[in-house]
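@here heads up, posting the sequence + SMILES for the calcium ion run so it's all in one place. Ping me if the SMILES looks off, I pulled it from an old spreadsheet.
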Amino acid sequence: GEIFDKEIYQDNSIAGVVTGLAWTSVGGEILFVEASLSKGKGKLTLSGQLGEVMKESAVTALSYLKSKAEKMGVDYRIFDNYDLHVHVPAGAVPKDGPSAGITMLTAMASIFTQRKVKSKVAMTGEITLRGKVMPVGGIKEKILAAKRAGIKEIILCEKNKRDIEEIDEEYIKGVTFHFVDKVEEVLDIALLKSKVEEPMIFTFPKENREEASN
Amino acid sequence: GEIFDKEIYQDNSIAGVVTGLAWTSVGGEILFVEASLSKGKGKLTLSGQLGEVMKESAVTALSYLKSKAEKMGVDYRIFDNYDLHVHVPAGAVPKDGPSAGITMLTAMASIFTQRKVKSKVAMTGEITLRGKVMPVGGIKEKILAAKRAGIKEIILCEKNKRDIEEIDEEYIKGVTFHFVDKVEEVLDIALLKSKVEEPMIFTFPKENREEASN
Amino acid sequence: GEIFDKEIYQDNSIAGVVTGLAWTSVGGEILFVEASLSKGKGKLTLSGQLGEVMKESAVTALSYLKSKAEKMGVDYRIFDNYDLHVHVPAGAVPKDGPSAGITMLTAMASIFTQRKVKSKVAMTGEITLRGKVMPVGGIKEKILAAKRAGIKEIILCEKNKRDIEEIDEEYIKGVTFHFVDKVEEVLDIALLKSKVEEPMIFTFPKENREEASN
Amino acid sequence: GEIFDKEIYQDNSIAGVVTGLAWTSVGGEILFVEASLSKGKGKLTLSGQLGEVMKESAVTALSYLKSKAEKMGVDYRIFDNYDLHVHVPAGAVPKDGPSAGITMLTAMASIFTQRKVKSKVAMTGEITLRGKVMPVGGIKEKILAAKRAGIKEIILCEKNKRDIEEIDEEYIKGVTFHFVDKVEEVLDIALLKSKVEEPMIFTFPKENREEASN
Amino acid sequence: GEIFDKEIYQDNSIAGVVTGLAWTSVGGEILFVEASLSKGKGKLTLSGQLGEVMKESAVTALSYLKSKAEKMGVDYRIFDNYDLHVHVPAGAVPKDGPSAGITMLTAMASIFTQRKVKSKVAMTGEITLRGKVMPVGGIKEKILAAKRAGIKEIILCEKNKRDIEEIDEEYIKGVTFHFVDKVEEVLDIALLKSKVEEPMIFTFPKENREEASN
Amino acid sequence: GEIFDKEIYQDNSIAGVVTGLAWTSVGGEILFVEASLSKGKGKLTLSGQLGEVMKESAVTALSYLKSKAEKMGVDYRIFDNYDLHVHVPAGAVPKDGPSAGITMLTAMASIFTQRKVKSKVAMTGEITLRGKVMPVGGIKEKILAAKRAGIKEIILCEKNKRDIEEIDEEYIKGVTFHFVDKVEEVLDIALLKSKVEEPMIFTFPKENREEASN
Ligand SMILES: [Ca+2]
Ligand SMILES: [Ca+2]
Ligand SMILES: [Ca+2]
Ligand SMILES: [Ca+2]
Ligand SMILES: [Ca+2]
Ligand SMILES: [Ca+2]
Ligand SMILES: [Ca+2]
Ligand SMILES: [Ca+2]
Ligand SMILES: [Ca+2]
Ligand SMILES: [Ca+2]
Ligand SMILES: [Ca+2]
Ligand SMILES: [Ca+2]
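bot reply: prediction finished. Complex structure tokens:
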């Protein structure tokens, strides 16, 4: 495959960049999901020739994050006062499917918390709005591509375990697999506790929201 | 059927997740409707490759809920100060038709009231804006799929009763059927009185709406 | 015809539900136009797989109502402070054409005034923006469908009188026809003076509009 | 032709209704342009299955009116504080072309000034943004249709005079023709000085626009 | 050619009307670009069945003007407090291509400055955002059409000079050519210093923009 | 190639104009990316018949710039209080692909900082959201076109080095190549430290954003 960037991304000094796994007609590939924040009004921009299903994955990941903001230590005002851009290079290659769901979620979680992403980790899996991780296809090809690129840990849905069991052991020597059911597990594995160096300092206008019991 | 998640959803500790029944070219399936709320301005987001008719069902369900907010004990300000997202996994499978109407309505009612959804209940039926439940197709296949998945109670339109009568009794042993005409009956059966653990606490900005007699 | 709900709607305790007459490839049918209001900002939502012409009928009906608000005793602020949803079941059946114009107008007039709709009345006719009622097609089939459904009074355009004269009398025995030219006549016949039980109480924010002579 | 309303509109007690002339595959027809205003925020709604060119005519007519508001005695605040709806029955008949331009402009001018429209007058002609009237096609067929409908005065572009000269005189006996170059001439002929009975009383919120010399 | 208005526009008492040159399948034509302003919020409306490229020309012309507002003596607040409409008759004729760029720019410059447009001048040329004039096609046919219409001066891109040199001299006798590289030159030639009679008086709401050094 | 402007752009007295390299069916070409700012509300306008991928490049470049505003000495308020227009002449030529990414970024950086662009520099390369420069195609043809146009320095992705090595040396004599990996390197090379003469003075309304630690 020539179309994606095949170099492993090792520099986790920047928040918001996470390695995913794609499955194309010519085999597996690693891909990067890049998230960035800039002052704004809560707009979401998606780029990289993403198809409808992949765009819906991004929107679902964002809704999940918003609903868990407090638990994750994210100041809710960021969602209203910053714009989020998610880009998936290469810019000219059409991409679709739900399997980048957990990768997008992790990239967003990193940019909103400014926490480092663990290096040499890649992942593939669909997310649902309630935080479930669902199995995806093309596992064998994706694993081989990750191995070739130097990935050391791979996060997959528990239900994709059987796909791994069919791969000849020597091809996956040295790679650690994490089988997960829930989005929380993904974040526990892929996000480090430490923030990136020079994290973004978020600033907000005055707000007039009041508490009300329900 | 490989496309939908076939495991029954038993964990009703989260509000907003309800089991529906789909009818595909390869038979019946259970599906999940997931609703979530996050602080916002009343935007409705729909995802899961929903077709036009299914999207209209969601919009109709929301209008119905809004018009009954007071009766259901829902603070009207939630509609203006929170965004609602409804997602139907699997994210890559196109879905359409009106039969998820009552499932969507129940998921929304649960998330807005934070009430638990009864476990092992599934449902299928169109809704109208005035709260009527209308019959849908594919009942036999849907029932069999529900039974296989471990569903114990099924909610259907009264007019779908005849479809049940044609199914061999042994296939439906152990399943309780609820035949309904109105949306209120659906909610009475499917929503428990108790709220989920750690329910969302809704907060609002100051409002300046005044009473006026008409 | 299997596609529409064939039961006559007798329960006029709810405002905003009016019986119309449709003409499909398999004959005439009764259909329901359902209108509901919820607090909002004056948005109009249309659902039920309505075609362009039918959507324009709804928009025209609403403009007509707004321009006659004062005469009809409707507080103008409702238009700005509530959202209107008009739904036409069955949700999966595409519908089009201008003949539901007076039905939509009557449903809207009922929901805005909270006045009861006369029971066992059905209607079919195009409206124009200045309140004229225009003739529509398929009258014979529509009348027969209304009769079968138990409708007792039918409102038609004066110019559709000739279509009635061609129907064998025994088929229309017991049905009263109202031939009208203007929208006001439709409302006089179809809307009762009394409000529904438990009418909506409309509330408004403070307004700063001032009088200015012209 | 069956598709349009063939009765001449004589009741000029309502502002905003003007008779135009259409040219269809089956000959000429009279048509009506209906304009209405309701409190709002300056939105323009067009209905009647109007094509792109006809919609642009309406938008051009409105821009012309706005730029001449002061000269015509129209309080500029109406444009910001009222919504304008222009409808052309019959609602199901697709219509296009620029020839309704002056008819639309006259309907709008009548509704904004609340001045009566002269009765038994019809018109056809394109407008430009600077107020020029341009010739249109189908003149002969349109004239004959107007004559059959009882129209007594017809307004045409000066450049359409030659089309009239080719019509046998007996067909146009009793019809007065007005040949014009400019929109002002159309309004001088078609709008009466007197307002309709019970004209709309326009009301406005406080405004904070200041004068500034340029 | 019958489709465009062939009369030269001599009445420069109105701001915002400029003569351009079009090249159609049946030869060259003169066309008019009409610009008008009305109180609003900075909206741009384009009409006359303009294609994508022609619409982008208009948007580019407006951005250029805005970036030069101060130099041209245009109060910046006009852009925010007035709506601009650009129309190109005839309304039913589809038009496209970049060659009306300088014509649109000149029409806009005239309406914003209220300066008269020189009479008997026509022009054709693409503009770029930095104010460069670029060559366009169909020059010979356009020149002949301009000559036939009575045009006395024509503005072209310097790079279109060679196209003129190929035209037989007798066809262009009495026409003055201006070859330009920059938009400023176009405006110097085509806009008179004097304002139109009864120029628009622009008014503005209070503004709270502050100076800040950079 | 006739379609693009082949003259090298030497006048760097204007901010926001940068030379890129395009690869068309008839060979390489130089093209210009033009950026301009005008007072507004942060709107981005793209013109020049840009395809989807090229538009996404522009959006990605802008997000990158916003996220680096502070480091680059750009007052963040410019993004909210000015509109950005990016145009790529010739206006009628459809353009697409990601290779103008770094050219767009440089044009935007110049207009926001008002810094001069180095003259006789051209560039081609995709950008990603995290500021990585990626290789693009058609390098040989692009280089030859740049050389023909008088370009002296060319910026390319490090990974495009091999494409240069395949070009016969005599064709590239006198051209300096810069191979880069990151966007920062591009800007270091292409943007001069000095501002253009008569730089724009940015002004802002009062702002009420407060600092908050995170
Ligand atoms: Ca695409
Ligand atoms: Ca996939
Ligand atoms: Ca789709
Ligand atoms: Ca169904
Ligand atoms: Ca549809
Ligand atoms: Ca009909
Ligand atoms: Ca249409
Ligand atoms: Ca016409
Ligand atoms: Ca068009
Ligand atoms: Ca051209
Ligand atoms: Ca295009
Ligand atoms: Ca390229």
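MO: The mean pLDDT of chain C is 92.
MO: One more: Residues 70 and 189 of chain C are 20 Å apart (CA to CA).
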